[in-house]
Amino acid sequence: MPFAHGGGRPDSRDRPKPIVPRDHVVAGSSYRYAEGEEPECSLSDLGKYIVEGSIGSKRCYFFSGWEGVDFPLPAGRAANDADLQIDIRRRYAAMLENIDTWLGKMTDTLVRRGMLNNTIILFASDHGEMLGDRNMWKKQVPYEPSVRVPLIWSGPGIRPCGLDQSPGSLVDISATLLSFAGAAPLTVSDSLDLTEYLAGRAAYPRRYSHSGLGEWRAITDGRWKLVLGYRTDLPLSKMQFGAIRPLDSSKGRLFDLWGDPGELSNLWEFNREIRERMLSALLQEAQRSSTAT
Q: What's the rounded mean pLDDT across residues 56-80?
């Protein structure tokens, strides 16, 4: 997970009218549509539009700027529906722009209330999206489009730094926010306090980042990534319900994310030193987690 800190705030000027679900949170309170402000189509309508190509007479305003924009086709996708693949990517980009629009509205609200200079802004996500790569959609798998998410920090006490390719982890959010708030640290936690690093006073404290679902487990140090237990015979809909099996260290996947960002070359049999280091760290984490639970 790459992360960033510092930088300015999104600019929400000249944006198309956004669409948000009914329970969307804006500036800390539940958003309510004003009279005459009903959205032209819902997010569920948008999903139907992607699949069916039509939602009647309704139009999604935040998509208007993306019609006709060209995108690369999904990597490794064997399909004859190129137009549909590109159209889905346009709509995905439109939804990302919608997120940016509302982030801009929230930060604009902080500015108007005089709160921006006393607020930590953290932008993250719980998962990625395969978006057609490898003939896959959704998440559930250990490949980078699925597990790689942003972790962006901004606010007082945070030194502008740009992009850091170190192995970030959502686990570290709790300890870091507690520290920023001046609260007592958690007594038992895997979460690392990043405040000293974000302020530029200390080195980054995390060496590895872990992820897993069902039977598979993965670990990365930012460059090298090792995966165990991933099965290609399971449909995505069942992958998250698999039971954790004893980790089979006799075979797996090892990728050099710097030289092979598409994770196409399995180096398991070709780089024993890196494999054993990453495998040892993964097995230690699996053992520690098993003992803790």
A: 71
Task: Please report the DSSP string for 31-60 in residue order.
Answer: --PPTT---SS-HHHHHHHHHHS-BTB---
**CA dist., res. 121 & res. 153, Å (int):** 6
In the block, which residue shows the tokens 């192995």?
A: 167
Query: How many whole angstroms separate alpha carbon 86 and alpha carbon 92?
Result: 10
User: Between β-strands 121-124 and 151-154, what pairing exists: parallel, antiparallel or unpaired?
Assistant: antiparallel
Q: Which two tokens stand for residue 103?
A: 């982030």
Q: State phi, psi for 133 to the nearest 5 degrees.
A: -60, 140
Question: Measuring CA to CA, which residue among 222, 246, 242 is closest to residue 233?
Answer: 242
Report whether pLDDT(64) > 70: no
Ranges of each domain in the chain: 3-164, 209-292
Q: Which CATH architecture has domain 209-292?
A: 2-Layer Sandwich (3.30)
Q: How far apart are CA 150 and CA 126, in angstroms?
A: 9
* Confidence label for 177 from pLDDT (cuts 50, 70 and 90): very high
pTM score of the predicted model: 0.75
The owner of tokens 């959704």 is 138
**pLDDT tens, 23-38?**
222 222 232 323 333 3
The residue with tokens 């995390």 is 206
Of 159-168, 206-215, 245-254, the one with minimum mean pLDDT is 245-254
CA distance 254 to 218: 10
* Structure token pair of residue 58: 């309704």
